[in-house]
Specification:
single chain; TIM Barrel; eight-stranded parallel sheet; about 15% strand; globular; binds phosphoenolpyruvate
Length: about 260
């Protein structure tokens, strides 16, 4: 079986200006300095990206925007592009977070364009998928997640898909304190990996890292992260506290 390096991502959403972000990033840097074999990335607000890049210079922690526009440059008022984020020192980009889908009408088709833009600029995307509570209750989890994967990953090359990260984030668990049970998370992660195997073959599918996101905290991280198809976490609220985030990262390497 392919060994996948766990990937821990901190989504700071609309929190923290440049000075506070730099302080928190430095604190996370210190607290995770001894951890090996884990990928860590921070997604601050666009306003704080350069401050966080500066604070993390020389460390192995990556930085990325919470969303990117598909266009590289031009008349797109209010947007961030993959190209400019790369120029600002980013290595990663979130694409299709459920809050973007919910508040900004993000669609999987548009995410597909953003994924192409991320690759063109040299950013590694984390593409987020997940169902709402209504969709889960209606027994539509695999249909919804499968549709998000089909549209979002449309026309991408197999090696591009193998190199990106997916985040399974049940919408009902994001910022709610509700967490999927380890079994629920594993079930959907296994479905995602089988979907990938059908699309790019089992060997490449075995390389793709699939994060779980949804109210991950130190007290529930170990159980979720120990599931065979869970390769790390996308952490919102708990990542605003360096000790909590570092404690989750620690459990990712020894779940
Ligand atoms: C997120 O922002 O992607 C997230 C999962 O948030 P939280 O951990 O707060 O649920």
């Amino acid at each position: 079986m392919t060994r996948r390096t766990p990937f821990l991502a901190a989504n700071w959403k609309l929190h923290l200006g440049p000075a506070e972000s730099a302080r928190l990033a430095s604190d996370i840097r210190v607290r995770t300095a001894d951890l090996r074999d884990v990928t860590i990335a921070i997604f601050p607000t666009a306003l704080s990206i350069t401050a966080v890049v500066d604070a993390l210079r020389g460390s192995s922690i990556g930085v990325g925007p919470q969303e990117i526009e598909a266009a590289p440059i031009g008349a797109w008022t209010g947007a961030n592009s993959a190209t400019l984020c790369r120029a600002a020192g980013c290595e990663f980009a979130l694409v299709g977070h459920s809050e973007r889908r919910q508040h900004y009408g993000e669609t999987s088709q548009r995410c597909n364009q953003r994924l192409f833009a991320a690759f063109a600029a040299g950013l590694v995307p984390i593409y987020c998928v997940g169902e709402t509570l209504g969709e889960r209750r209606a027994g539509r989890v695999e249909q919804v997640v499968g549709d998000q994967l089909s549209a979002g990953l449309d026309r991408l090359e197999s090696d591009q898909i193998a190199s990106l990260t997916l985040a399974y984030e049940p919408v009902w668990a994001i910022g709610t304190g509700e967490t999927a049970t380890p079994e629920q998370a594993q079930q959907v992660h296994a479905f995602i990996r089988s979907w990938l195997a059908a699309r790019i073959g089992p060997t490449l599918a075995g390389q793709v890292r699939i994060q779980y996101g949804g109210s991950v905290k130190p007290s529930n991280a170990a159980e979720i992260l120990s599931q065979p198809d869970v390769d790390g976490a996308l952490v919102g609220g708990a990542s605003l506290d360096a000790a909590n985030f570092a404690a989750i990262a620690m459990q990712a390497i020894s779940p």
